[in-house]
Amino acid sequence: MDHKQGSDRNQIVMFSLESAIPKDSFVRVVDAFRRFLWLLKEWNLIESQTIAIDSFKIRARNSLKKNCNDKKLKHHLEYIDNQIRAYEEQLEKSDQEEEIKALNAKISERKEKQDYYKSISNKLKDSGEEQISVTDPDSRAVVLLRNIVNAGYNIQSSSDEK
Length: 162
Fold this sequence. Notes:
alpha+beta
């Protein structure tokens, strides 16, 4: 490969980046890329001047239901609060002992679920992350295809000419 052909590819990549990324973010992206290359060289993962970097997403063995963010947790807690209020209203109107026991059991179950979601919310706040996975802490909600969101991983791979 002659030098001119490599330069043309580099210019195409830079043009693509410049057109896809706002100007104020472009410098940060280039800086992040340079730091990433430095890190790969520091860890002796690459040696040469020519490098290819790609990313791909794979599914995790984790249900999306077990992956929570702040918005999802607030929604669950609000839904549970509404259920508890509805059961309590039914409880006030009920005069049958069996129905009262059933409603108290439902309220108790909903309060346990509420405590569960509150504990996850506290873990999320303590972690400083935007989302948390109950089953697999390394997985995240990622867009796999177009608008399909699943629990998974964003894998970064790199290789050099050696």
